[in-house]
Amino acid sequence: MIRILVTGGTFDKEYNELAGTLFFKDTHLPEMLRLGRSRLDVAVRTLMMIDSLEMTDADRGLIVDHCRAAPDSCIVITHGTDTMVETAAAIAGADPAVGAKTIVLTGAMIPYAFGSSDGLFNLGSALSFVQLLPAGVYVAMNGRCFEWNRVRKNRETGVFEAV
Amino acid sequence: MIRILVTGGTFDKEYNELAGTLFFKDTHLPEMLRLGRSRLDVAVRTLMMIDSLEMTDADRGLIVDHCRAAPDSCIVITHGTDTMVETAAAIAGADPAVGAKTIVLTGAMIPYAFGSSDGLFNLGSALSFVQLLPAGVYVAMNGRCFEWNRVRKNRETGVFEAV
Amino acid sequence: MIRILVTGGTFDKEYNELAGTLFFKDTHLPEMLRLGRSRLDVAVRTLMMIDSLEMTDADRGLIVDHCRAAPDSCIVITHGTDTMVETAAAIAGADPAVGAKTIVLTGAMIPYAFGSSDGLFNLGSALSFVQLLPAGVYVAMNGRCFEWNRVRKNRETGVFEAV
Amino acid sequence: MIRILVTGGTFDKEYNELAGTLFFKDTHLPEMLRLGRSRLDVAVRTLMMIDSLEMTDADRGLIVDHCRAAPDSCIVITHGTDTMVETAAAIAGADPAVGAKTIVLTGAMIPYAFGSSDGLFNLGSALSFVQLLPAGVYVAMNGRCFEWNRVRKNRETGVFEAV
């Protein structure tokens, strides 16, 4: 079974039609899995619904706790792209119990609720990488997969690239 | 570099608004890669644009030829789901030059042109599996990946399942 | 109150993922009205779900009957585009009880289930025309409205034009 | 010919994938007219691209100027919903040269770039109302049309209602 931990990020931003702004409500993960006709055995757990720029050390601690406690050896984390690499580092720096698992962080540049979202592509990609990669912490974006300490988000282009 | 061979299938069905029927025109692969913000180094080649129920032995021969001739060791083939497993078997039965490559067939249950398509999810999945799997011929659908001789499409449910 | 009579047509075609063909299931009208955030007082009634090329005289008789029996003076009919004008003529040729109502036929060139459908635009248009036009039978397509006997569908271009 | 004056509003909000926020770039009107397969003779002119909460008296003066100067007697204005009624009042209060025209303001509760937008429905509706209404200033939303001085936006529900 694959554990999916939801933290929010662009993936799950919605349009608040009364306020005219973006906000978080429920995760779109179950709907996305349905759309992708996924037949994977997954368990989805929402940990928080926030913009990753607002993620605190305590939030990252909570994510690490859930990675550690999950009975599954394959974990996908949906996450805002801006601090995805920081969270990956926090998980990788945790104790060996976490290190024995394959953990893939992914996200989207465009909210799923937009017609033009890259979210479904990235989700299909992350769920595939996590099934094959050896234990470790990874970032899967743009069809590529990086080890947590060999990637950065280029803020100018929005692209994740090797370092 | 990943070679993408396009053969048509549900992936690429479009609506002919004058005739009121489905038909094939151009492949949606480049548009899908753009939507997914793919940063993979790919070369897309359209071999045919047909419903896989109409695929002949000669068509499969052409696909095998292209798998053999491709300079790349990673190949993704987009294909109609109805005879995807047959084509996978044809490729797997070819000479050793093909066998040294990692070849992943994928498709969609709903055309990409529909809002409700599973295509983008499957494409992200196939492009990820092909990067990690050892040489061999595989079918990637519904987030899962099967060796070519251990899968069948369940015609009742539309789901690919292990045999 | 506006009466909406559903007869099928391109508007409501769906993709049958097991057969790989287009078919009719339920009408999308309620979903379209929700998407358009319509606050009109409407009653939706499905009379048939067919391609208008298959519409018989008996089918047209049923439509006329419902136009006659409806207690509402404003009626919108969703209809396949190929024989929309024939049905409009059949309604216009019926007895005076029908002639006292404002009846607007509309349809779509692309099924609503496709991302690229013109259906929502045409529905918004037809529901607006029907509120203001004097009694009579009309065809509303492409943002325009024609009296039933002054329009034809150009089969080459798919456009409704004045005659 | 129908003149379409674009002022921005929710209709045209896009997602800035680098900043993670909504912003205005180009208007989606031409794309929406194409999607709706509109065959109306229209001239689109962008006056500004702003949130209607930020619209100043000077902005409204500019809109009135363009209504006055337009050679066309039918004008549709796309506008943010929050102050749509205020702008309608400003136009209605202008000199008689404006009053001789039929002017319909419309907008959207959800940006067109979202899959769930009501924009196409409202555009089809406004373009239809403007062809039939007598001279005056109107607001077309939710399938309904109101005279400028008999409507308000209910901020709790987001619905335009008669007063």
Strand content of chain A: 25-35%
Q: Strand pairing plus helix content of chain A: what structural class?
A: alpha/beta
What is the helical fraction of chain A, as a range of percent?
25-40%
Number of strands of chain A: 10
Task: Tell me the strand order in the biggest sheet of chain A.
Answer: 4-1-5-6-7-8
Any idea what the radius of gyration of chain A is?
A: 15 Å
Detailed description of the structure:
The structure is a homotetramer of 163-residue chains. Chain A is of the alpha/beta class and 163 residues long. Helix content of chain A is 29%, strand content 32%. Chain A is built from five helices and ten strands. In chain A, a hairpin with a 4-residue loop joins strand 2 (13-16) and strand 3 (21-24).
Key structural traits:
homotetramer; 163 residues; alpha/beta; 6-stranded mixed beta sheet; two-stranded antiparallel ribbon; 5 helices; globular
Short description:
Chain A has 5 helices and 10 strands; from the N terminus they run E-E-E-H-E-H-E-H-H-E-H-E-E-E-E. Chain A has helices at 29-35, 57-69, 84-92, 96-99, 119-132; strands spanning 2-8, 13-16, 21-24, 42-50, 74-78, 102-106, 136-141, 144-147, 151-154, 159-162.
Topology:
The structure is a homotetramer of 163-residue chains.
Chain A: E1 2-8, E2 13-16, E3 21-24, H1 29-35, E4 42-50, H2 57-69, E5 74-78, H3 84-92, H4 96-99, E6 102-106, H5 119-132, E7 136-141, E8 144-147, E9 151-154, E10 159-162
Parallel strand pairs in A: 1-4, 1-5, 5-6, 6-7
Antiparallel strand pairs in A: 2-3, 7-8, 9-10
